[in-house]
């Protein structure tokens, strides 16, 4: 399996997914097209610079039309009066803030919350009845717009990732309506005019949602199909990373793993435990979901990783008052080892990632004594104390050094430089895929990831 390609593809997919969800309309022309960035790598770099500011508003490169034209609206008011809103456009959609983003990587879902302080719907109106008519400019202000939704990815039959659903819901906290030159007729139906804001919002809401479900969905899938890497239908892309990690653990010589010798004394009894080896650490796999949450310009990652049954062995020697002693060898099984880690990273990538918490737990122990002739009382002593001693020693040997090592690794990471390097690899893979697509028949295109 190609580790670089897996890393680049995973990085690409997460970014395409999250950045595309924030795009309200990806197929319309944006007036400021000259300042837009087209390549995903360029867009990511622009976003990194954007989040170095104290109050990032909008998202560089997000193809959101601002203003966005909306259809004319007609509403029948009281006593035969009709209101027509025409040549309407929504201003301020690009001024959104990402309040939060929760990603369930295992299920390939992203929950996202966006807010816009003020939206303005500007245009013209016509208010008429059989006895009077008035017309002029209209200004409908929507305060406190909030959008919350979910987007999903899955592996298609052909092996590439595709977005299957993007759903979004909108709400506002307050609506203010201003109609110029309302005249006598406008005064007569003032109470009904005050309800126009709700009517406008309810009318434009499905229009915006339809844009998301059609244009953005198409744009996301176009980007995903453009990246020539395929995945097995039965294996989530996230779990492919764990397969690479298992290979790395074996390569670095951590499976089997040697635990430091130790001595335990209780009263007149002394127990020496040596030659402690544990195997099976490279059987780790994802336990439950891995969540990525973005809030207050910080990304929080929480992961739970567990192993299959661990097997080990050690030598022991028990003595009484330093005079009488007996020795032997014992094998043991541990039901599982589970690690729960929490990491945070500021979106200002000049800052280093931080290990918030790391906890290790071990399952039940089972002991199996080798050899014969061991005294029953010695076995009883060892059975009573050795599992807890081994549990403590194994956790002590793994937990604290792992915390220190992980934080050292995080402290040495230049996040900005690493991302730029990954983006360059992404560009190289895409360019190579495009070159190969010109050399091979269409049915041979694509890079298939080896599961072995």
UniProtKB/TrEMBL annotation:
Alphabetical list of InterPro entries matching this protein: Bactericidal_perm-incr_a/b_dom (IPR017943), Haemolymph_juvenile_hormone-bd (IPR010562), Mite_allergen_7_sf (IPR038602), Mite_allergen_group-7 (IPR020234), To_sf (IPR038606)
Keyword entries, A-Z: Signal
GO molecular function terms attached to this record: lipid binding
Biased composition (Basic and acidic residues): 433-446
Alphabetized SMART domains for the sequence: JHBP
Annotated segments matching region Disordered: 428-452
Residues annotated as signal peptide: 1-23
Pfam family, one: Grp7_allergen
Official protein name in the record: Lipid-binding serum glycoprotein N-terminal domain-containing protein
Source organism of the structure: Cuerna arida
């Amino acid at each position: 399996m190609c580790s670089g390609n897996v890393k680049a593809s995973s990085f690409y997919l997460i970014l395409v997914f999250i950045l595309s969800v924030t795009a309200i309309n990806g197929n319309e022309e944006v007036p400021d097209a000259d300042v837009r960035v087209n390549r995903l790598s360029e867009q990511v770099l622009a976003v990194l610079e954007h989040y170095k500011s104290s109050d990032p508003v909008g998202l560089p490169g997000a193809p959101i039309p601002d203003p966005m034209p909306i259809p004319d609206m007609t509403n029948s008011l009281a006593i035969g009066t009709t209101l027509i809103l025409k040549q309407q456009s929504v201003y301020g959609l690009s001024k959104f803030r990402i309040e939060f983003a929760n990603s369930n990587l295992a299920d390939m879902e992203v929950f996202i919350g966006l807010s816009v302080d003020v939206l303005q719907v500007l245009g013209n109106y016509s208010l008429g009845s059989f006895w009077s008519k008035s017309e002029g400019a209209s200004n409908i202000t929507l305060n406190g717009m909030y959008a919350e939704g979910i987007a999903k990815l899955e592996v298609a039959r052909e092996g590439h990732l595709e977005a299957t659903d993007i759903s979004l819901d909108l709400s506002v906290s307050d609506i203010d309506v201003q109609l110029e030159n309302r005249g006598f007729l406008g005064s007569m139906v003032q109470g009904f005019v005050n309800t126009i804001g709700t009517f406008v919002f309810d009318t434009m809401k499905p229009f915006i949602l339809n844009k998301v479900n059609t244009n953005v969905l198409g744009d996301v899938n176009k980007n995903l199909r453009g990246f020539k890497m395929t995945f097995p239908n039965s294996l989530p892309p996230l779990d492919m990373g764990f397969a690479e990690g298992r290979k790395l653990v074996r390569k670095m010589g951590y499976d089997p793993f040697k635990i430091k010798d130790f001595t335990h004394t209780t009263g007149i009894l002394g127990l020496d435990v040596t030659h402690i080896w544990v195997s099976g650490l490279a059987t780790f796999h994802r336990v439950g979901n891995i969540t990525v949450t973005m809030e207050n310009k910080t990304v929080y990652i929480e992961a739970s990783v567990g192993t299959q049954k661990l097997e080990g062995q050690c030598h022991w020697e028990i003595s009484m008052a330093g005079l009488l002693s007996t020795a032997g060898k014992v094998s043991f099984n541990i039901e599982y080892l589970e690690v729960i880690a929490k990491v945070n990273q500021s979106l200002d990538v000049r800052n280093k990632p931080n290990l918030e918490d790391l906890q290790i737990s071990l399952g039940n122990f089972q002991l199996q004594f080798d050899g014969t002739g061991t005294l029953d009382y010695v076995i009883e002593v060892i059975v009573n104390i050795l599992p807890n001693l081994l549990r403590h020693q194994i956790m002590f040997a793994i937990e604290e050094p792992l915390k220190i090592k992980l934080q050292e690794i995080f402290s040495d990471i230049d996040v900005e430089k690493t991302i730029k390097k990954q983006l360059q690899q992404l560009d190289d893979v895409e360019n190579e895929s495009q070159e190969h697509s010109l050399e091979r028949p269409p049915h041979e295109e694509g890079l298939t990831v080896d599961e072995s």
